[in-house]
Design brief:
Elements lengths: L4 E4 L2 E3 L2 E3 L4 E2 L3 E2 L4 E3 L2 E4 L3 E4 L7 H12 L6 E3 L5 H4 L2 H7 L4 E4 L3 H8 L4 H5 L2 E2 L5 E3 L4 E6 L9 E5 L4 E3 L21 H4 L1 H12 L3 H12 L5 E3 L10 H12 L5 E8 L5 H15 L6 E4 L5 H10 E11 L2 E2 L1 H12 L6 E7 L6 H9 L6 E9 L8 H16 L1
Parallel strand pairs: 8-9, 9-10, 10-11, 15-16, 17-18, 17-19, 19-21, 21-22
Antiparallel strand pairs: 1-2, 2-7, 3-6, 4-5, 7-8, 12-13, 13-14, 14-15, 19-20
Length: about 400
């Protein structure tokens, strides 16, 4: 049974959600599933904007057929070639062989690599570049190049008539859609923002400069609707969500707060982390998050680092190095170019604590980050005599948050 939604004049949502997939890109846990959004515009000419993942191909193709209502498909616009949006291109072309592919030049080799049997159709593609216009009749589509947001071929499609920006993976989020497909139909700040932040930080986070470039382009376009390829569609409060993207893409924290990320083998480092959190609360710090890296997925820890202004890393020495879950997190933070944060360290080592020195070296590889002089070194458990060191660290962190 089809499931389509009108999102603007002549413009239909034809996507589908997958609630069975355990990990997005086989990396990031998605307990709430994920949506694969696609759109059809009906005019003198018809256009399908992107396709969907193979896992939802049956529902997606039924939706497209229903939206077209027996009409032919004139254009298949490929804004993004990642397989979760492009996997069903060949099936679309089999069902609507008259459709002409619309894409930019960087998309062509990817299309041929993924769909060699369709190379002939790819050779007949309508190639577009920045600012080109494709008229469907009353709907004029303009193309906005968005390279490395987050693949090199990405482009946005803007409908001048309805002022809908089809934004590819930008402004997307994890989570299946429950028929309320608009952000204003749900409590986005409560139920979706954490997943939106985690999606941005882990999928797009490295490409902040490119996102900033796209935001500058978007600022010059009158936009009424943002229609991403994942998650809810925006038709109200666009400035609020664009503001989040502006902060994230400049690696600026959302909250002046502290996240304490710890690894602990036997609970001693964990106890110190929790004691520090209590001291911070006593000093009026709000929005504190404490996460155990052995049970918290690294994608969630990364998202917390994008949220908070101040980060405490607490880990034992392990085989002369950094406890592995912490080492993994630090690798990701470097890969995602995290910047503009204040760090503090807690180390543990029964006979040769080294993790603070090694974590400090990793923090030193991050741009515009400050490492507080105050730190806490444990040799097993947190001793009563170290309470002064703990409170000194809490004082330094509270001062950093309130600065």
């Amino acid at each position: 049974m089809h499931c389509t939604h009108l999102i603007a004049a002549d413009t239909w949502y034809v996507g589908a959600s997958d609630r069975r997939l355990a990990k997005f890109e086989n990396l990031f846990p998605i307990p709430r599933g994920v949506s694969y959004n696609a759109y059809v515009i009906l005019d003198e000419k018809t256009a399908l904007l992107d396709t969907a993942d193979a896992s939802v191909s049956g529902q997606f193709l039924e939706n497209v057929a229903h939206a077209l209502g027996g009409r032919s498909l004139d254009y298949l616009i490929v804004d993004h070639m990642e397989p979760d949006h492009a996997a069903t291109i060949a099936e679309v072309l089999l069902r609507w062989p008259e459709a002409q592919i619309v894409c930019n030049a960087k998309t062509v080799p990817m299309l041929k690599a993924y769909f060699p049997a369709s190379a002939g159709k790819v050779d007949e593609a309508l190639l577009v570049k920045e600012g080109d216009v494709l008229s469907l009749g009353t709907h004029d589509l303009t193309f906005v190049m968005a390279p490395m947001v987050h693949w090199p071929e990405v482009m946005f499609t803007y409908d001048k008539t309805t002022q809908v920006l089809f934004s590819a993976d930008a402004f997307g989020t994890f989570g299946a859609l429950d028929s309320n497909i608009f952000a204003d139909q749900v409590d986005f700040a409560r139920d979706w923002l954490d997943d939106a932040r985690r999606y941005y930080a882990n999928i797009v986070g490295k490409y902040g400069a490119q996102v900033q470039a796209v935001l500058k382009k978007a600022a010059g376009i009158p936009i009424q609707v943002i229609a991403p390829l994942h998650g809810p569609i925006w038709r109200q409060d666009l400035a609020w969500f664009l503001g989040k993207y502006d902060l994230w893409s400049r690696w600026q924290p959302e909250d002046n707060s502290v996240v304490i990320l710890y690894g602990s083998m036997y609970g001693n480092t964990a106890n110190a982390a929790k004691a520090l959190a209590g001291c911070l609360a006593d000093r009026g710090v709000q929005g504190i998050a404490v996460r155990d890296l052995s049970v918290t997925d690294v994608s969630e820890a990364v998202a917390e680092c994008f949220r908070a202004s101040t980060i405490v890393l607490a880990a034992p020495t392990y085989n002369g190095g950094i406890y592995l879950p912490m080492a993994h997190l630090l690798e990701d933070l470097k890969a995602l170019s995290l910047q503009n944060r204040t760090f503090a360290l807690i180390e543990n080592g029964s006979w040769a604590p080294m993790s603070a020195k090694l974590m400090a070296e990793r923090v030193g590889e991050l741009k515009n980050c400050t490492l507080l002089d105050a730190k806490l070194t444990l040799r097993g458990t947190l001793a009563p005599a170290q309470y002064a060191d703990l409170t000194a660290l809490a004082d330094a962190l509270a001062a950093a948050v309130k600065a």
